[in-house]
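*** Residues and shapes ***
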Amino acid sequence: MNTSFIIWGIIIYVIIASVVALLSRKGNLPGMSGYFIGNRKMNGILSSLSYSATTYSAFMMVGLAGLTYQGGVGALGFEIVYFTGVSLILIFGPRFWLAGKKNGYVTPSEMLGDRYQSKSAAAVIAIMSCLFLIPYSAVQLAGVGYLLQGMTDNRIPYSLGVIIAVILAVFFSYTAGIRSVVWTDSLQALFMIVTSTVVVLIIVNSLGGFGQFFENLQVDHPESLSVPGNGYFSILTFLGLTIPWFFFSISNPQVSQRLFMPNSFKGLRQMLIGFLVFGFIYTFVSVMWGFSALQLFPDLENADLATPSLLSSDTVPPILGVIVMVGILAAAVSTIDSIMLTLSSMFARDVYGNMKSRPDDNKQLKAGKIFIPIIAILAYAFAELELNLIAVLSVAASSGLIVSVPAIIGAFFWKRGTAAGVIISVVVSALIVLVLEATGTKPLGLGAGICGLILSTVLFVGVSIFTHAPKDKAEEFVNLMKEHRKKTV
């Protein structure tokens, strides 16, 4: 593909997205709540588009397509399990929203710290989130790097693609905080879903239509249509990938923080419905990308180059290829800037903000803004390692974040949960997950995420039983939905 097309596509995207970001500054909301969660005034449509763009990142069109290329239809099962995990929002979404509105929470870790009456618990969860989400940010940067490198035959090198994504994410984060990110996310989500769907239909048609498409797979790559197929998706590998992904919607703070933002219960409902529709379409589109690349380029050395190879091929008209490329770039940037804002808000609120000389709201906001470029630099350094298989690396990040799930469930459904149980379960389990991921060790063949979840649950329950629980806050959280129903009757 002509590199100049790609460069002009990036320039046009940057101009349009920058204008949208700058326009979002009008009526800018002050303070931590305004900058990081839009003062809880986001309507349902904007919330759903932003939630979708934040969740479905470079992981999908680059990572899930690559995983499909690598392991076949098992990748669809893996993503469907995540999709079913979104049902957790039906349970936890209203509770997050009610707790946030009642107590003015800005971050999920702040909420948990207040529930368990422990600033230390809030700080521990914030630090743990940074530990695992910075590598996840790097995964998005790597997706952009591989995309531009593959489509231009290395005329735009990997590192330059990563730098472009970093600069855009920092700019959008700084422009107007979450308002900028939400509006650019909404633009990017629409762009992503329309362009990727149109192009996959063109590719399938060029391969003879849907009937011929799957017949070709059955004849030439029969293992791709079965599980474990070529052996990649063994049952333990499948569980190791899917269990952390199932809890993604509540364990990943850049996603769960969005539950504080809708302006009403109706907005929260619209956000979830819109996300489900978006996700259903985008999941099948991404899997079809992987199967298409398998038919056209069966001998790729790196599965993450499946999508770049497709977009730069003669099958896809150059203009459409550039448009989809920009959509994937936008998807990655939307996730990175959301993570930057979430981590910086957690650091400002729950680490810096919990110091003995409690800084006021404005000082916390300044600290959060200072932390944004630090996160960007760390993510860039990690991305430069050029690790393969983006989807697997994404799951590795979720494997670490899953250790907070028992504390989150306990916050709303178990009055005996304690701060000591939270701190010990999160710290010990996160360290074990880090060791398992770093060494590649799988006790009894189980992935790090499963081990982390089991250990965290045992420690949280065990330690909580033998330590003191804060009764007042426990009652408040467990009875949130009962109180809400009484008020609405």
User: Anything to note?
Assistant: Residues 318-351 form the longest helix (34 residues). The mean pLDDT is 83. The CA atoms of residues 299 and 415 lie 55 Å apart. The two ends are 61 Å apart (CA to CA).
